[in-house]
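All the exercises in this workshop are built on plain-text protein records. There is nothing in a record beyond a sequence line and a structure line. A learned vocabulary of local backbone shapes supplies the integers on the structure line. The question running through the whole workshop is how a given chain folds. Here is such a record, shown just as it appears in the course material:

***
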Amino acid sequence: MASTPSKLEKENLEAHVELCHQRYTQLDERLTKIETKVEIIHTD
């Protein structure tokens, strides 16, 4: 599920930084959901 950098991202540092921020935000949200589910399973 790796993201391939776009031409714009390769040539523009600001675009790269913004896209990385979005990717890490999405990753953090997904990880939080997984942690919550594991916690629920563990307490059952």
Remarks:
- Residues 33 and 39 are 10 Å apart (CA to CA).
